[in-house]
Every structure is written in C-alpha cells, then in structure tokens.
Inverse folding.
C-alpha cells in the first residue's frame, strides 16, 4: 500500500517561544499610563502563549519576572514599580540580549536614550499620539 506522507510525533515539543516585554515605569510615565501598560503586559502574556519575560525598568532593570499562563495578573500586582527617575533603554536591551528572544515589546513614552540596535526585532508601544522616531524598531501607538 501507499506509504504515509507523514508520521505523527510521539512526544510534544516542549520548547515555547520567548518574548520580552519591557515596562517603563520612570517618572515621566503617569499612573493612568502605568495601568494601561500593565493591562497590555497581561494581554500579551495571555494571548501569545509564549514564555513571557517581564522587565520593569527606568534607568536600570529592577525587576525580571517570567509570567506563567493564568498568573500574570497576580505577578503584576506583586511588582513594586519605581515611580521616579529617568529612562534609558540601554539596560533593558542588554538584559533582553541575555534572554535571547526573537522579539521585544517595549511599553514606553519613548523619552530616553536608545543605545545600539539589538539583534532581535523591537516593537515600541507608546501611549502618545505623536512620538519621536526611534533609531530602530517599529512604533505602535496605544492612543485611542
């Protein structure tokens, strides 16, 4: 008889996609925008099904959490967000390089130095209707 064109796998592939989500909590990000960012983080983790690394940052990365499916809301409420200081994207990009994701989503107002281009794709998600043009990546407006 004819040979099958495929053979079903006997084991599930245990590798999950990885995504880095950077959350800017610097002094230029207000409380309403921080709440919007937290909701976006939960949505990304829930909808993507990927291993989601949350990096909270201002001038440095001060929190790194791996969000588990179904537990991202509780993980977000346990984070002590820094609410002062400036913004630098260099530290968050360096930490993301160590994680080695195919993509990073950075939730920010785009107010800070960008540093060199990372070896992965970057989506800048901003609440602003008008924003400065970053030297790399794609900008997505969260403004309604």
């Amino acid at each position: 008889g004819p040979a099958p064109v495929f053979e079903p796998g006997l084991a599930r592939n245990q590798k999950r996609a990885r995504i880095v989500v950077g959350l800017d909590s610097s002094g230029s990000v207000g409380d309403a925008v921080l709440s919007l960012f937290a909701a976006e983080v939960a949505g990304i983790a829930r909808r993507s099904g990927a291993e989601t690394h949350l990096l909270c940052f201002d001038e440095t990365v001060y929190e790194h959490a791996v969000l588990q499916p179904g537990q991202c809301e509780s993980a977000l409420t346990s984070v002590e967000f820094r609410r002062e200081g400036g913004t630098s994207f260099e530290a968050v990009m360096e930490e993301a390089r160590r994680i080695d994701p195919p993509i990073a989503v950075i939730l920010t107002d785009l107010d800070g130095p960008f540093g060199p281009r990372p070896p992965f794709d970057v989506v800048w998600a901003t609440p602003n209707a008008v924003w400065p043009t970053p030297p790399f990546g794609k900008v997505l407006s969260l403004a309604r």
Observations:
- The chain has a mean pLDDT of 86.
- Residues 122 and 137 are 5 Å apart (CA to CA).
